[in-house]
Design brief:
Protein name: Pre-mRNA splicing factor
Helix content: over 70%
Distance between the termini: 44 Å
Order of helices and strands: HHHHHHHHHHHHHHHHHHHH
CATH class of one domain: Mainly Alpha
CATH superfamily of one domain: Tetratricopeptide repeat domain
GO cellular component, one term: catalytic step 2 spliceosome
Pfam family, one: TPR_16
Keywords: Repeat, TPR repeat
Mean pLDDT: 93
Radius of gyration: 22 Å
CATH topology of one domain: Serine Threonine Protein Phosphatase 5, Tetratricopeptide repeat
Shape: globular
Number of helices: 20
Number of strands: 0
InterPro entries: HAT, Syf1-like, TPR-like_helical_dom_sf, TPR_rpt
CATH architecture of one domain: Alpha Horseshoe
Length: about 325
């Protein structure tokens, strides 16, 4: 978009000018409204962003416009206004899962756990195929110390969404967090029967093995998912844990050649170079990450989508995520 290149060059008024011409041509375009809002909010012009969103709700009241309106208020810590906007949005779009997710997360932030539970619970009734909603509900039960309920939520979720590797992975991790290694291993075996080509499950299974068996498991994983970035990243971490520095670098390269959008891989590689590389090698990884502008990855999204970090640059997110990367052992 022309507006984006002007903005990146530091010319905000020119970017505004391009967007206002676009508005005249497409007054009901959700994409143009949201681009204009992004321009203002990322330049900390929050009142302008608010006014634009209010207008957008009048002329293009789509679920995303409603969601972005609430998200702006949430990021500015006006939780009550955010909740009000979300309630209004749900009257029109009750089956838009992200609205339910945001309501639950805001109530969690306010430490109103029972209201968060009500939001997630109502959400899964309206959106039974939203995997993130089921996982949020299960994690809420886990936080409240209700392990049996967390398990039961995920069982119900798997019945409604069979062969879903994300639900299996969460169920396995619930057991690992509870110290139930044997149950976790039995579940992993079941999960791989149901989802035999799941990269995220194979990647997790490698590090569930005792150290001497990990190499064998990684060979099995590569046979099943030789082009899956999660498996390639797990193999990179395996070489890292064995301190095979050049092998590790080579596998990070392979991972990111296949999926440059995987933020977790960039963060792992950057952390690796902070510990084992030169300043030049760190800088090279950072620059390559910035030009890829990654958006995916479990760890990456946990930081980039955290409401406290709204408006952060790719470089800021990379550095924060790298700090969270556990050193493989």
């Amino acid at each position: 978009m022309g507006a984006k290149s002007k903005w990146l060059a530091g010319d905000v008024p020119a970017a505004r000018g391009i967007l206002s011409l676009a508005f005249q041509a497409n007054p009901n375009s959700e994409e143009i409204w949201l681009a204009a809002v992004k321009l203002e909010s990322e330049n900390k012009e929050y009142e302008r962003a608010r006014r634009l969103l209010a207008k957008a709700r009048g002329s293009a009241p789509t679920p995303r416009v409603m969601m972005k309106s609430a998200k702006l208020e949430w990021s500015l810590n006006d939780l009550d206004q955010a909740l009000h906007l979300l309630d209004e949005a749900l009257k029109v779009f009750p089956d838009f899962a992200k609205l339910w997710m945001m309501i639950g997360q805001i109530y969690e932030q306010k430490s109103e756990m029972s209201r968060a539970f009500d939001a997630y619970n109502a959400g899964i009734k309206k959106c039974p195929n939203s995997i993130p909603l089921w996982i949020l509900l299960s994690r809420l039960e886990e936080k409240r110390g209700l392990l049996i309920k967390a398990r039961s939520v995920l069982e119900k979720a798997r019945l409604k969404n069979p062969k879903n590797d994300q639900l299996w992975l969460e169920a396995i991790r619930v057991e690992i967090r509870a110290g139930m290694k044997d149950i976790a291993n039995a579940m992993m075996a079941k999960a791989l029967q149901e989802c035999p080509n799941s990269g995220i499950l194979w990647a997790e299974s490698i590090f569930m093995e005792p150290r001497p068996q990990r190499k064998t498991k990684s060979v099995d994983a590569l046979k099943k998912c030789e082009h899956d970035p999660h498996v390639l990243l797990a193999v990179s971490k395996l070489f890292w844990s064995e301190r095979k520095i050049s092998k590790c670098r080579e596998w990070f390269q392979r991972t990111l050649k296949i999926e440059p959008d995987l933020g977790d891989a960039w963060a792992h590689w950057y952390r690796f170079e902070q510990l084992h590389g030169t300043k030049e090698q760190q800088e090279e990884v950072k620059q390559r990450c910035l030009s890829s502008e990654p958006h995916h990855g479990e760890l990456w999204c946990s930081i980039s989508k955290d409401i406290k970090n709204v408006g952060m640059t790719t470089e800021q997110v990379l550095k924060l995520v790298a700090k969270e990367v556990p050193i493989p052992v």
